[in-house]
Amino acid sequence: MESKSQSRFPLGRQSSLAPEKDGVSDDSVTAGHGVDEGIDSGLRLMYMTNDGDLEGMEELLDSGTSVNYKDIDGRTALHIAACQGYADVVDFLLKNGAHVDAMDRWGSTGTYCVALWRGTEVAVKKLGEELFTDEDKVKAFGDELALLQKIRHPNVVQFLGAVTQSSPMMIITEYLPKGDLRAFLKRKGALKPITAVKFALDIARGINYLHEHKPEAIIHRDLEPENILRDDSGLLKVADFGLSKLMKFTKTVKEDRPLARQEDSWRYVAPEVLKHEEYDTKVDVFSFALILQEVSSSNS
C-alpha cells in the first residue's frame, strides 16, 4: 500500500525544465546502492527507472504499484526515463499505461525536453514512431510546420527549426523557462489586477496576430492555460499549434473528423466545435474568455 504523503525523488536533475540546483542535490543519495524497502513503492519505481532496472520495475507494477505515481514535484517514472534517455524503459512504461504528457511542476512532459542548439537552450517537441505510419499525424505535423514558419510575433512562441528526415521527428522552438500559465496560477493563486490585465493583453495580442494573419487567418483551436507559456521577463506567449486551422477560401471551417483531446481541456472548446459545426475565429475568443476568468480569479 503506497503512502499518501508525497516524497521527492532526489537523484539529480530529473526534469528537463527543472533549475540546475532545484530540490535535493546528488550528494544526498548515491545511485546504484539499492533501494530502501521502507520507502513508497512508487518512489522505488522511480529509483529503479533511474537505474534502468526493468526487471525490478516489472515486479513493482505486477504488485500493484501505479505506473503514473507522482512525487512531490509531479514527476513520474516516465519523466525520469525520458531525461535519462532510456528508450527501452520509456517503451516499457508506455506499454504499461504511463501517461505520455503528465506534467511536472516545471512544465516538463515526456514528449517535451530542453536541448542545446547552436549554443542556445531550446525546447524540443518529439513525435512518436507511429507518426511514420499514421497519415493523419503526418499531415498534422506538416500543417503545424507550415503554420510555425509563417509566424513572427512577441506574444507567440518562436519556431526555430524541425527534424523531418529521421526518427523521432522533432519541432524546435524557443525555450521558455518559466513554464505554463496553468502552473503559474496554481502556484500564485489570486493575481494583482495589474498583473491580470497584463496577462490578458499578452494573450489577446498573440491571438489577434493569428486572427489578422495574411493571407489567411489562423484559428488556434487549442487555447488553454497549458498552451500559454511565460518567458524570463514574465511575458506570455501563445504556444502549441497542433490543432490550428488556416481559414483559406472561406470565412468558416469545419472538422473533417472528431477532435481527440485531453479530458480536462474540453471545457475550453467552443460549442460549435464540439457539435462539429462550421466555426471561425470566435472559437478562440470563447477559449480566451474562460482563461480570462481564471486569470482574474483565485480558483485556477
TrEMBL record:
Compositionally biased region (Polar residues): 1-17
ANK repeats by residue range: 73-105
Keyword Hydrolase: no
InterPro entries for this protein: Ankyrin_rpt (IPR002110), Ankyrin_rpt-contain_sf (IPR036770), Kinase-like_dom_sf (IPR011009), Prot_kinase_dom (IPR000719), Ser-Thr/Tyr_kinase_cat_dom (IPR001245), Ser/Thr_Kinases-Pseudokinases (IPR051681)
Domain named Protein kinase: residues: 98-300
Domain of life of the source: Eukaryota
GO molecular function: ATP binding; protein kinase activity
Gene3D superfamilies, alphabetized: Ankyrin repeat-containing domain, Phosphorylase Kinase, domain 1, Transferase(Phosphotransferase) domain 1
Keyword terms: ANK repeat, ATP-binding, Kinase, Nucleotide-binding, Transferase
Region of interest (Disordered), ranges: 1-35
Family statement: Belongs to the protein kinase superfamily. TKL Ser/Thr protein kinase family.
Protein name stated in the entry: Integrin-linked protein kinase
Organism: Solanum tuberosum (Potato)
Lineage per the UniProt record: Eukaryota, Viridiplantae, Streptophyta, Embryophyta, Tracheophyta
